[in-house]
């Protein structure tokens, strides 16, 4: 007589429940702890500038050159965002242009793009280009220089990558019109761009942060798959067969 399915599953569970529980534990550990293993991001300042210039060239615009003072302003702004937990262009009555001025950059025009929770430079640029106001900064013919900061750190309890790109054109002095009034021609600053507009809602901070990073999600899934394969291999082992045989003798059921 063949062993019944329910009895087989019961015996299988008795032998492998520890492995199954361990598999579930590893899966959830991958989801909730891997976000703390930060900086799987491949974003770099050079790639952001390169991709920005590629888009500008496609639109017959001049390329932007990296400016040391704008880069300094971008890093200071990024550090303040991380420290304050505010993903914003302006901090109260302090405009984003304040960081540019404090870095010593005198400008005619200035703009800023922000992005957070992205894994690749391409992903950040794609999101910016999909936003009209962010795209306006990237493709604005008034800008000639840029500074980019890529900061890996903890933001509101989650490890992430923050990107700050500041655009500018230096203050020029014309023999006819004189100097342009500094800070009077600031372009409309766009709203910050997170990867997921619903991230960290409903108390699922780690879960949303993890899913915002495809590499972390893949690692979590692979971890679970490996343990499922391991559990399946145990089920086919001689030890399990012997275990079932012993149990079947007690039940007086033949094992095939």
Automatic annotation (TrEMBL):
Keywords: Membrane, Transmembrane, Transmembrane helix. InterPro entries: CAP_dom, CAP_sf. It comes from the Bacteria. Residues 50-166 form the SCP domain. CDD domains: CAP_bacterial (cd05379). The chain crosses the membrane at residues 20-40, 215-234. PANTHER family: SCP DOMAIN-CONTAINING PROTEIN. This is SCP domain-containing protein.
């Amino acid at each position: 007589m063949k062993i019944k399915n329910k009895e087989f599953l019961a015996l299988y569970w008795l032998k492998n429940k520890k492995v199954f529980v361990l598999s579930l534990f590893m899966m959830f550990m991958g989801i909730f702890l891997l976000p703390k293993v930060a900086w799987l991001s491949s974003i770099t300042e050079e790639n952001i500038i390169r991709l920005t210039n590629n888009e500008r060239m496609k639109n017959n615009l001049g390329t932007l050159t990296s400016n040391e003072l704008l880069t300094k302003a971008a890093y200071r702004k990024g550090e303040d965002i991380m420290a304050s937990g505010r993903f914003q262009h302006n901090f109260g009555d302090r405009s984003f242009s304040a960081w540019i001025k404090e870095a010593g950059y005198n400008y005619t025009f200035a703009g800023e793009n922000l992005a957070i929770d992205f894994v690749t430079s391409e992903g950040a640029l794609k999101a910016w280009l999909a936003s009209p106001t962010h795209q306006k900064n990237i493709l604005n013919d008034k800008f000639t220089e840029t500074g980019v900061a890529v900061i890996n750190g903890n933001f509101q309890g989650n490890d992430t990558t923050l990107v700050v790109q500041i655009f500018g054109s230096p203050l020029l002095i014309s023999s006819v019109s004189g100097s342009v009034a500094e800070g009077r021609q600031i372009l409309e600053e766009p709203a910050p761009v997170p990867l997921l507009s619903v991230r960290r809602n409903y108390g699922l901070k780690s879960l949303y942060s993890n899913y915002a990073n495809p590499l972390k999600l893949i690692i979590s899934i692979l971890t679970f798959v490996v343990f499922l394969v391991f559990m399946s291999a145990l089920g086919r082992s001689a030890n399990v067969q012997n275990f079932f045989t012993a149990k079947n003798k007690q039940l007086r059921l033949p094992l095939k």
